Structures are given as structure tokens and as C-alpha cells.
Amino acid sequence: MDIEAFRKAGHEVVDKICDYYASLEQRPVGAQVKPGFLREAVPDEAPEKGEEWSVISKDYDEIILPGITHWQAPGFMAYFPANATFEGCLADLHAAAISNPAFNWSCSPSVTELEILVLDWIAKALHLSPAFLSTSEVGGGIILGSASEVAVTVMVAARERALAMLSDARGAEVPADGGARPEATVQETGTQHKDLDDEEQWGKWRGDATGRLVAYGTTQTHSIGSKACLILGLAFRALDVKAEDGYALRGDVLRKALEEDTAKGRVPFMLIGTFGTTSSGAVDNLKEIGQVAKDYPMLWLHCDAAYAGVAMSLPEVREASTDLAAINECFDSYSTNMHKWGLVQFDCSPLFVRDRGALTRALTVTPEYLRTKHGDAGSVLDLRNMQISLGRRFRSLKVWFVLRSFGLEGFRAHLRNGISLAQGFAEQLREHGKPFAIVAPPRYALVVFRLDPTGAGGQSEELDALNRRFWEAIQEYSKEIQLTQTVLPEVGFCIRLVVGAPSTRQQHIDMAWRILQECADKTLKA
Amino acid sequence: MDIEAFRKAGHEVVDKICDYYASLEQRPVGAQVKPGFLREAVPDEAPEKGEEWSVISKDYDEIILPGITHWQAPGFMAYFPANATFEGCLADLHAAAISNPAFNWSCSPSVTELEILVLDWIAKALHLSPAFLSTSEVGGGIILGSASEVAVTVMVAARERALAMLSDARGAEVPADGGARPEATVQETGTQHKDLDDEEQWGKWRGDATGRLVAYGTTQTHSIGSKACLILGLAFRALDVKAEDGYALRGDVLRKALEEDTAKGRVPFMLIGTFGTTSSGAVDNLKEIGQVAKDYPMLWLHCDAAYAGVAMSLPEVREASTDLAAINECFDSYSTNMHKWGLVQFDCSPLFVRDRGALTRALTVTPEYLRTKHGDAGSVLDLRNMQISLGRRFRSLKVWFVLRSFGLEGFRAHLRNGISLAQGFAEQLREHGKPFAIVAPPRYALVVFRLDPTGAGGQSEELDALNRRFWEAIQEYSKEIQLTQTVLPEVGFCIRLVVGAPSTRQQHIDMAWRILQECADKTLKA
């Protein structure tokens, strides 16, 4: 495709996207296809001769689009939102055109520098402490691809920090830096392990120490926590939370666990505190956690605010709790997904840390072919040293476009729209009462409910069975709405409704409410 | 921005990209900016009120673009290429518009299904064994974001497979699956670790066994290998390679290392064999490696073909060696980056494995809120269970657009153009002779050379110093060309030139050659 062919095709695709958004409401929200549908439509090998763009483009409409679940549709209220905006589209298009995997500053200075700047914009919008800004010179951020990637990355830094502290406590028999080699080149890394005998004792010590590390979360922590432990081969302990606490981790529960484990020779090295859990939007008691952690200096506190973190841009959310103050005072890292409710296309997971060095000490490897004058001089940040991957996309551009075009005013209006629609829906449920029951305090734009025809509450096989049938009935309406199910302690099986697509209006909440009433009737009659 | 505003802005951006490509040759290849340049141009917080698109768009041209290093420019011959194509731009634009983090099949069936299909297209184009195709039902692929992510992901699978084998050998005292819990829900994961006492013995065994694992590569293996070990806290042993072997790992060197380590109670669990190293394009002797590995069933063989893998689509490359046969017969996994020389925008790193189960056993965690009817029934693949992250971008769309629009014919023509230009450049260097010297066999589109005015060869401080000055001189021409430096065993400091941008023609090689001669003159006169 040459420049003029691209001009024509590009204009057509832009027009198609306009048509797509104009017709979003008429499309089935959930894809109405069966597993394997695409294999029937797509040849089993690449064509030998190039094909015309018009043919490819037609296939996109006729083969691909019917198999897409429309997360931007107003009836999409499942999982968490994955906002797309036109500004984000334009940024991704620009980024694709100048494609460069900016692993070093010099690979594309704008990519590194804009990322650092917009991270400061986000941190300020959320009222994070100046300690998390690049201007602190010590703390700062990086945009990663997902909260999962954030969890693994932070856990590596926390592990290395804990091992370094343990090693310091043990004395000079082991490397004082705990095994992190900030400036190691590939050759040095090679040498270092080449004769393992010399390091045999050190390796055994490290293996044993690593085996004693324990990361903490709750039964409500997102599976990214236990998955990070699975990946790194570390122990994860999920603490119990109670319905009466709104599923928040309390300080006394944490303290008891830390004391028990420490008494057994284990080393608590990381805690994931959640600001807005997936199942119910619960917020752990970050203040109490921060207090307890003061007695455990090795415990890295990470706040996973993947979904709800963006809501800290609202004064009414910040002022309603002590969570922000606790994060700013006590937490080592904080992450929220701009690609959920934050108007920025997937993927965009900003991570803020109080000590950038904790990441770079754990993650830097610099072979000769990655060295640059500026990198050697330390006059720039090479962001690859704060992440797993070498290459990186130009993700900050979409943040820049979105925040400038919406302004913080528009950003907050979008969040408030979601919250107000969801709280209105919760009010409707509450007023209607039986057979519906809200099962957790509605948080942000998330409402969790179930059928409880007698209002008995609690957890029972009968209620679970009833609500699984209710869930089956809801899924029959997948063309109109998409919701998700979950399981809550002391409750059991229940249904989540999350408002967040920019296209969702009151009329779509009304539609969801009508469908839920129909499904409830059907389920109860059956 | 509403639909009509996007239509206007979208058309403008498409036209801008056309202008950008038309003017690519006139732009400085390397960004001519100083560290911190952007901080002066960008306000230090997000605007309160939304700004006009015209203002934002103007800033993109005036503030961002000057800080971009143009990897698509014909004079970009550094690192490895990061191809962008118009087809890739259109795919990324569509993907941004329908943005969805397709972690489950149901989240967007087309995203999962197209990925599986185009991976088969790629595997067939590269003549990989049917064992690596989805149609094998056992093997198959996934598109990850980078070769680094591939290395970590595969290493987790290799570690778990090795631990399971060790555990089987040890008997029933430890879980037979080696600790992997394919179907664990978050709650179960919680329970499992809740009372660590019950698993104390198991944990100690696992910790000790993990500490004995060793991964292998060579001094030429990309730093992604040692970095994966750094992340996972595992030992990496970099084996020596010789210039006389073209920097390829030989079977006898590997066997000696495996015997030594096994004798010491260590457990070799993974080897990264490279098809096209970063420093010199070297290819390890995969046939000899495969033979040796037959005696070490626990050794996972991964082939990192990040750069050169796409060249296996050329019969002349496939037929020139026994490497493909060795991969197909002996290797457990294979990865190449379509986003380097493969015409697909960053990021796109296909990973092929012989046993998908090795990934899913190591990486599956399924809380209730991620369960789906089809996932529970096992009638679909949920690709999140083969990777670190939960969310995933619609990366297969760009592969589909590119391979269809270019056809395999066009794909191969692009590769042959790069190879032919690079080999022509190597020929020029060879014919010219002193003060230039080619220091490793030119491979694919990569030529590694240095100044060696006396033709003495070998490694010396004098030659290193001279070539570091030569490198300084070359960097003065960053507006015209971009190259990269490296260090090779038995050689020392040298310069890499890689052809790969679709825009590079003979005239640009001629320009590079003129600049290199000028730089050589200056360096030698100084």
C-alpha cells in the first residue's frame, strides 16, 4: 500500500469508525457467535499474492466485527469498563505511524519524556504525594501494560528490597546489595554465574530466604496478586475479610497474620492493599494497614487501585476517607488503570513508586548494544530498567491527547456520570426491595446484588442455585446488556453491574433494570 | 470530541501521516534534542478545561515530532528495525476504536480466534512443524508483547515442568503436579497458602529445588535471558562461544556444562538457543544442541529468533542449514518478533510451544468473576492463561492486514531487499579492505565491522580505543544515519549496520558508506 492508497484507505477507516460509533446502540453488545466461527471464514494459510485493500476491509466488517463484544456499547456493564475515546484512537494511529520501541531515551526522546510528564499530570490529578512525582527525583512512575504486569514488576522490586535488608542484617557474608546488580552487563551477568561454586553459599542463602518470603492480600484481592506469586514462585497468603467490614482488610487481621508468620520464621515482604476490589469495589482499610506496617519495615505496601483509582480525582471521593492520606504517607507504590474507567484506550497502567531505585536496582541489565551516551551519563531515565520488557509503546501520547481534550473538568464529569447512574440504579434496587437485594455497599459505579426473595440474607445453597438460574436468564439478553457474576464471602453467588462506558445514559440503566425484572420473574416462576 | 469532530480530525491525521512518510527522507533520523527538552514545552499539570483539537494537534507536530527518532527513515540502521506499515496503522486504528481487553474468548471472540488463526499462518510461512500449530490440538501459539515477555513466560513454564518432573522422581510426598494448580480459583489459592504449616515441608523442598535450577545461554544470548533469570530469581549461566564457530554455541560446550552442573547437584532446566544474535546475527548450532538435550529430558529448549526468525520464510535460508529441522525435531518453543523485520508494528511477538498445557498449567488462575460458560466447558482457549497479563490487545489484526495485503510474496520480497542491500554493503567493505574489517560473518541483513588499519585482527586496547573514537565520529552524523555499537568476544568494540526499514534503498547504503569512509578518515587522521 503506497502513500496515496493509504490516504484513501485511512479516510475510509475513519468514516467506518464514525459509522460504528453512530450504530453502537443498534449492535448486539455481546458477540453472537459460536466457538470456531472464524476458522470457517478464514483460509488456513496466508495468501501467496497480496490482496486488494477493499477485499480485506470488507472482510473486517463482515467477518471480524460480528465476533466483537462491544465494550463501548451503552449496554456493556460487565467486568470493568475499557473506555475508548476518539482522542485515544488518534493517538494510537500516530503512535503506529512513527512506531518505535523506545527502550532507551535516545530511541525516541519524546516517548520517554512525555511519559514522565503525563505521569506527573496523573499523579497531581489524583492528589498523590509529591513523593510519587518525577520532580521528587527519587520517586516517579512508568506506564505498564496491565495491572498484572504492575503486580509482577512491583513484586520483583519488593523481593529484592527484602532480600537486601535480610542480607544486610546477616552481615558481610553475602553481597551487600542483596544480589541486585544495577550496572551488570550481559558479560558480567554471565561471569557472575559462570562459576556457580564461588556463589554456592550465597545461592543457598538466597534460595532459603526467598522460600521464606510471603506476600499478603485478601480473599478479595484481584487474582493478579496470586498470579504474580505463581509466576515468581513465591507464597501468597489471602487473608479473610468480613461482610460487616464491607470486605475491607482490617489492621488487626493483618497484624495477627504478620505476627504468626514472623514467629514461624517467615518474612512478610509485600502487601497488596486494594482501592476498589473487582467483586464489590471494596477498599481495604489503608490507614490501619499503614499503621501496622510501621512495625514491619520490610513490608512493601502496594496499592492496587486498578479500577477505582481514577476516582481519586474527585474531591468528594478523596474527602470521604483517610485512604489517600494513608497511601501518601505509607504506601511504597500505587497503580491505577487509565484503560479501565479513565478514558484512555487499553493498554495503559500507570505505576507510581516512592523509590524508582527499587525498580532499577532489581531490573537493570545493560549489554553494550543497549548503552548510550546519555544513559551512561545518567542524564536521562531509560524506562526499560523499570519494567520486564525491553521495548515499549508510545502509550503516553493517548494520555496527553485525552487529558488535554477532555480537561480535568471533562474527566471528572465522565466519572461522575458513571457514579451517578450506578448510585441511581442502586437506589432503584433498594426502593424496589424484594426479590432483589444489594449485597455490598455500592461503590463508585459498581453495584452488586442478587435475588433474595425472602430477604433472609446470608449464604445458602438455595440462594446460590436460584441466583445461578437468574444469571443464566440474564445471559439470554446478551444482545442488550452484558453483566458479570461473582462470589462474595458470607453471600455467595451474586451479580455485578458496572457503569462506565462514555455512551451509557439513564435510558440504558432503565433498560437493564427492565431486563433484570423480567429475568427475576422468569427465574422465580420456574 | 464527537463523531463529526473525529471525522474531521481523523482525516487530518491520516493526511499528516501521508505527509510524514513523504518527508521521511528529509527529516533528521536521530532526534536532535537535549534531555529535558519536553519539560520546557509542556505545562506541569493537566489543563482544567478541555482544549481544542487544533491546538493539541499543532503541539504534536511542533513539540513531539522533533523529539522522535525516525525508525522508519531509510537511514535508520541501528539496533534492529521496527517496521511500520500502513496496513499496521489501519489495524491499530480499528483496534483502538473497538478497544477491548480480550482476556477471555467471550470478551471478544474475534480477538482470540483471529490470533489463533494468524499464528498458524505465521508458523506455516516459517515452515515450523505441525506440532506448533493450533490444529495439533496440543501445541500452538500466542502473541505476546516482546521477546522479553516471551523469555519470562517460557521460563515460568520450563521451571514448573522441571519441578513437576523432580517431584515425580521424588515420590508422593509432594503434589504430583509440581505445585501448579491449573483450576485454582482465588479462594482456593487463598486456602492453599492460608495455613502454610501444612505445606511447610513442600515449600522447603520447592525452595531448595528451585535454587538448584540453572538456565543456559551464551555470552551472545540477548540480555532478555539473564533478565528473565533476574526477574524470576533463577541462575543463568552464559556459556562461552568462539569467533571460529561464528559465535555459535556448540554441542560439546553445552554437554560439558550440563555434566559439570549435574554432577554438582544442579538441575539444568532451560536453554535459550538463538537464531540470529543481536551482536552479530550468529545462529547457535541448534542441531548439536538438540542432540545433547536428548540426554536431558528436563531441559526446555527455547529458540529465540526475535530478529532473524522471519527469514525462515525464505527457502534459501531454510535450506542453508539444519537449524529448522532441529527446531522442529527438538525445541519446545520458538519465538520471533513480527515487530522487528516482519512488517508488523510494535508490539507483536508470536510465541509457539509444542505443549500449550505447559503454559496453562503454570499460569492459570480463575476467580469466579473470570469464569465463562465456554471457558468452563473447555470449548475455547482463554489466552490469558498462557501469559503474564490478564488483558490483551487485538494484535492479530495487524498481522492479518499485513500478510494479506503484502501476500507471502511481498513479505519475502521485503526480507530479500534487506538481505541483498546488507550483503552488498558487506561486499563493498570486503573489497575496500583496510582500514575496514568485517569482524563476523554477515548474517541476514546485519553487518558487523570496525576499523583495523593494519589488518592485525584480534582484540586490543588500541583497536578498542580507535573504534570508540570512530563510533563518536559516526554519532556526529545522527541526522543522516543511525547505527549501533557492540562488543564481540575475541574482537572487542565494533559497529553494527542493519538494513530493514522498508524505505531503505541502495542510495541510502551508498550514503552510509560515504559517511563511514569520512568518519574513518577523520578518526585515523586524529
UniProtKB/TrEMBL annotation, chains A, B:
Sites bearing N6-(pyridoxal phosphate)lysine, chain numbering: K340
Protein's organism: Tilletiopsis washingtonensis
Protein name from the UniProt record: PLP-dependent transferase
MF terms in GO: carboxy-lyase activity; pyridoxal phosphate binding; transferase activity
Cofactor(s) the record lists: pyridoxal 5'-phosphate
GO CC field: cytoplasm
Gene Ontology biological-process entries: amino acid metabolic process; carboxylic acid metabolic process
Region (Disordered): 174-196
Family of the protein in this entry: Belongs to the group II decarboxylase family.
Key words, A-Z: Decarboxylase, Lyase, Pyridoxal phosphate, Transferase
PANTHER family for the chain: GROUP II PYRIDOXAL-5-PHOSPHATE DECARBOXYLASE, MIP05841P
Alphabetized InterPro entries for the sequence: Aromatic_deC (IPR010977), PyrdxlP-dep_de-COase (IPR002129), PyrdxlP-dep_Trfase (IPR015424), PyrdxlP-dep_Trfase_major (IPR015421), PyrdxlP-dep_Trfase_small (IPR015422), Pyridoxal-P_BS (IPR021115)
